[in-house]
């Protein structure tokens, strides 16, 4: 269909005979062509008003409060961290390891990710650092806060310029997003907004752990409207995917800030309910092992996760990942917005400057930020999925990238990724695509332990697996018996060798892709040598002493703390935990421990320094001193 945008800009409409009298799409009474003409009529009248008010945006201003180069320090959630154990780690062993730090694990949905609740006196950073180096875990990290990537009160009047820029009206000839649900992970969505209320499906509030997903900050309502505001209702704005449904998933506090754990829970929640598109408009999400794992979980279930590229205006060395699509922002001239972050993690670009969208209380407003280039892209993905529902997410993603308008240097670059999203070309490519039959099996190998090595007790098994489309799971089999399944790369297992008899055991890894193709690794034979003789128990505790300070008065900015220890079984097996006033400050291993205590912000007066040393047999001893901080 040819659309006369000059006529639209003056408010002209198509003939009344091609409009729906009710203003609501009624597919039972009109064919798809007349439906779209009616839809365009409403869009045209709205667009005409906005274009009449708005100047052409040639360069976007920096987002309010987050000018170029600004990286505001963020906090983290107190009393919890995030971990992912190796596949196959027994639950009792996991509980034991976490219990050594006073922690208790909560599994997130059907994934392998855990939230670990810690006691009030624990240092989240210290415990996360300790567990990150534990051989039973893939990773451990603090539950970092993340901020939304928006600008309220944009200096420009808003308009719907971004819709014709990405070719949305042409895309609507083939798809309006019907049948697709977009999960909006944000501050909630205004349930009474006339352009959003009909679009909503039930979601969840992970901040308060209830079903109330009303917007508490306003950001989520703006993001939701950018992706899928209702059209053909003779008012307001048009989202990119106007017939897609919106699942509000609240992950943030009333100040708009979210955490890695809430976002990870939201992604897994949406994936477990069959949602195929999720948008999370927060900064730096690709840097979190937890959110990358949760996004990969959704991708393995057939979905795609779209995230904001960030608004710092400078180079960001965030982790590069294939589990999420990170989106930069462009203006109406296809230039990168001056405040849009850049780096090798950027996958795509999309309009994000002066975007007119829904706001709280049934209103509308102009906003800027990668918070809005992200849902614009999510809306395009929904159009593609609706155009060819059987098309796998990996093909959708590939076509999304290959049809983008290449900007900047030829090919993928740190500023625009593969280019600015083009809805018309992307939807056309999806609609005409042949669902590729994948017959290529993954490639898989066991990288450790080495063949012929002797193993005892819990054994770490590392596997490398790749596929032309993607590996969905890896099974580890010992003597032909499956002992664990891992669905998230890097593929890593913990095998309890006590479950087989001493002697040679055969380890084989099987990798599977979404099409059901599978491949077995070359078998690795190891010698299981668990002891069968009587073991003399070590009951002697280590000797530990705080060498410096020796007690008494301390002053200045920093106080070096030095600890020495020895054990009858050797100092290499000694593990330290250092506490100051009962709060865990440091951990270590070996014959010595050093820690630099910053006392600049410590209150004057008496303070207790205690170190606990534990040997490999679990015997422990402690040493403590009292020092007086003099200001």
What does this structure look like?
There is one protein chain. The protein has 631 residues and is α/β, with parallel strands linked by helices. Helix content is 20%, strand content 30%. The longest helix has 22 residues, at 32-53. The protein starts with a helix and ends with a strand.
Which keywords apply here?
31 strands, alpha/beta, 20% helix, 631 residues, globular, 30% strand, Peptidase_S8_subtilisin-rel, Rossmann fold, 5 domains, Alpha-Beta Plaits, seven-stranded parallel β-sheet
Fold topology:
Elements: H1 5-9, H2 32-53, E1 76-85, H3 91-99, E2 104-107, E3 114-117, H4 124-132, E4 137-146, H5 162-165, H6 168-171, E5 181-186, E6 204-205, H7 219-228, E7 245-250, E8 258-259, H8 260-272, E9 277-280, H9 289-300, E10 304-308, E11 325-330, E12 346-351, E13 355-359, E14 363-367, H10 370-387, H11 393-402, H12 423-432, E15 443-448, E16 454-455, E17 458-466, E18 471-478, E19 481-486, E20 491-496, E21 503-513, E22 518-520, E23 524-528, E24 543-548, E25 552-554, E26 558-566, E27 575-580, E28 583-589, E29 592-598, E30 605-614, E31 620-629
Parallel strand pairs: 5-7, 5-9, 6-7, 9-10, 10-11, 11-12, 16-23, 25-31
Antiparallel strand pairs: 1-3, 1-4, 2-3, 4-8, 13-14, 15-17, 17-20, 18-19, 18-21, 21-22, 21-23, 24-26, 26-29, 27-28, 27-30, 30-31
Helix pairs in contact: 7-10, 8-9, 10-11, 10-12, 11-12
């Amino acid at each position: 269909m040819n659309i006369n945008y000059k006529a639209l800009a003056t408010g002209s409409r198509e003939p009344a005979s091609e409009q729906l009298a009710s203003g609501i799409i009624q597919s039972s009474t009109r064919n798809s062509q007349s439906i779209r003409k009616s839809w365009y009529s409403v869009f045209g009248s709205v667009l005409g008003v906005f274009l009449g008010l708005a100047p052409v945006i040639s360069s976007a201003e920096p987002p309010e409060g987050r000018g170029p180069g600004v990286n505001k320090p963020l906090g983290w959630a107190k009393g919890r961290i995030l971990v992912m154990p190796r596949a196959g780690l027994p639950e009792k062993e996991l509980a034991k390891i976490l219990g050594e730090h006073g922690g208790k694990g909560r599994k997130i949905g059907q994934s392998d990710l855990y939230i670990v609740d810690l006691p009030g006196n624990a240092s989240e950073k210290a415990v996360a650092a300790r567990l990150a180096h534990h051989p039973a875990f893939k990773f451990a990290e603090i539950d970092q806060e993340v901020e939304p990537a928006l600008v309220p009160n944009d200096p420009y009047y808003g308009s719907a310029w971004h819709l014709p820029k990405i070719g949305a009206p042409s895309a609507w000839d083939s798809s309006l997003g019907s049948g697709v649900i977009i999960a909006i992970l944000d501050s909630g969505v205004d349930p009474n907004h006339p352009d959003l209320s009909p679009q909503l499906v039930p979601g969840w509030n992970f901040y308060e752990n209830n079903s109330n997903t009303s917007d508490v900050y306003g950001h989520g309502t703006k993001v939701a409207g950018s992706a899928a505001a209702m059209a053909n209702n003779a008012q307001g704005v048009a989202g990119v995917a106007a017939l897609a449904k919106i699942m509000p998933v609240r992950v943030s506090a009333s100040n708009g800030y979210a955490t890695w754990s809430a976002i990870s829970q939201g992604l897994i929640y949406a994936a477990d309910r069959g949602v195929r598109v999720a948008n999370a408009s927060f900064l730096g999400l690709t840097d979190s092992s937890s959110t990358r794992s949760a996004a990969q979980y959704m991708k393995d279930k057939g979905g795609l996760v779209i995230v904001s590229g960030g608004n710092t205006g400078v180079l960001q060395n965030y982790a590069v990942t294939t589990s999420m699509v990170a989106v930069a922002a462009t203006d109406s001239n296809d230039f990168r917005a001056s405040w849009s972050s850049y780096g090798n993690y950027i996958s795509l670009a999309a309009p994000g400057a002066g975007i007119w969208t829904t706001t709280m209380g049934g209103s509308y407003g102009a906003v800027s930020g990668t918070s809005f280039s992200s849902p614009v892209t999510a809306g395009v993905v929904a159009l593609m999925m609706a155009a060819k529902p059987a098309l796998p997410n990996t093909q959708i993603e590939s076509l999304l990238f290959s049809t983008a308008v290449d900007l900047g240097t030829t090919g993928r670059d740190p500023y625009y990724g593969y280019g600015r999203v083009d809805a018309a070309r992307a939807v056309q490519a999806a609609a005409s695509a042949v669902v590729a039959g994948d017959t290529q099996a993954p490639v898989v190998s066991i990288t450790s332990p080495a063949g012929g090595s002797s193993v005892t007790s819990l054994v770490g098994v590392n596997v490398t697996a790749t596929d032309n489309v993607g590996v969905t799971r890896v099974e580890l089999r010992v003597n032909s018996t499956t002992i664990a399944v891992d669905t998230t790369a890097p593929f890593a297992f913990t095998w309890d060798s006590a479950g087989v008899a001493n002697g040679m055991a055969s380890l084989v890894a099987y990798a599977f892709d979404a099409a059901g193709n599978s491949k077995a690794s070359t078998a690795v034979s190891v010698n299981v040598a668990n002891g069968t003789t009587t073991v003399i128990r070590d009951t002697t505790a280590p000797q530990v002493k705080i060498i410096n300070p020796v007690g008494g008065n301390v002053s200045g900015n920093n106080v070096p703390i030095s600890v020495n220890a020895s054990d009858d079984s050797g100092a290499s097996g000694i593990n330290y935990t250092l506490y100051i006033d009962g709060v865990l400050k440091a951990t270590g291993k070996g014959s010595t421990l050093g820690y630099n205590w910053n006392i600049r912000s410590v209150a004057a007066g008496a303070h207790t320094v205690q170190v606990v040393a534990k040997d490999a047999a679990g015997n422990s001893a402690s040493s403590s001193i009292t020092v007086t901080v003099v200001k």
